[in-house]
Amino acid sequence: MAKDHYLPRTDEGRLIWVNNFSAKIGNYVSTLGLTAADVTSAKNDAAMFAYLVNAAEVFTTAKEQRVNFKNLVKDGPLGKPLGLVPDTPVLGAKPADVAPGIFPRLAQLVQRIKNSAAYTEAIGKDLGIIGAKSVVDFDALKPKLKLVMKGGQVEVQWTRGDADAVYIEVDRGNGTWQFLAVDTVPHYTDTMPVATHAIWKYRAIYLIRDERVGNWSDVISIAVG
After folding, report:
1. What is the 3-state secondary structure (H, E, C) of the chain?
2. What is the pLDDT of residues 155-174, one digit of tens each?
3. For 140-224, which CATH superfamily applies?
4. Residue 3: is its pLDDT beyond 50?
């Protein structure tokens, strides 16, 4: 499937893009006939988006920590140290408010830049507004997983790439695969309490618009308990 675009699909990719764009757009005010308001708007949009992406990550992690703590208190195992109650997340200072539609607004600014008589390919590459042509073979997509023990629980690490999400299954040592999660934001923490020693296996397949695409990942395993 051929495509030609400059804006990444993921929030992580868009954060990198908008930080570059907002940092460099001021260099072309005179050349492209932009205004100080254009630059300020782009910088405010970048700051707010960075704040919101970070906040989502902080509270996602905080939720996982609280679920893990709740499960430990609820199910044990007996004799395991309780540890400390997870702290309340603290965010940095909120940047200036912006109107809804950060990327539609930036897309309009990008179009104005490209319509300028002084616009060049070099400027486009510097601002990151020239998309690279690529071909994605969705039938060949295959997640690559990595397992890491964190806080006594398994973190399933993966990358999103061109997919929307990943569908994860687990075998908890009984030879049966069972649904674990659909995860849209890497990485996923398996909150199942570990009661006894076992070898847990994991596999995953990509999702695009809620449909499975490509191939199952290689099966990887980890010792727990």
Report:
1. CEEEECCCCCHHHHHHHHHHHHHHHHHHHHHHCCCHHHHHHHHHHHHHHHHHHHHHHHHHHHHHHHHHHHHHHHHCCCCCCCCCCCCCCCCCCCCCCCCCCHHHHHHHHHHHHHHCCCCCHHHHHHHCCCCEEEECCHHHCCCCCEEEEECCEEEEECCCCCCCEEEEEEECCCCCCEEEEEECCCCEEECCCCCCCEEEEEEEEEEECCEEECCCCCCEEEEEC
2. 999 998 889 999 999 999 99
3. Immunoglobulins (2.60.40.10)
4. no
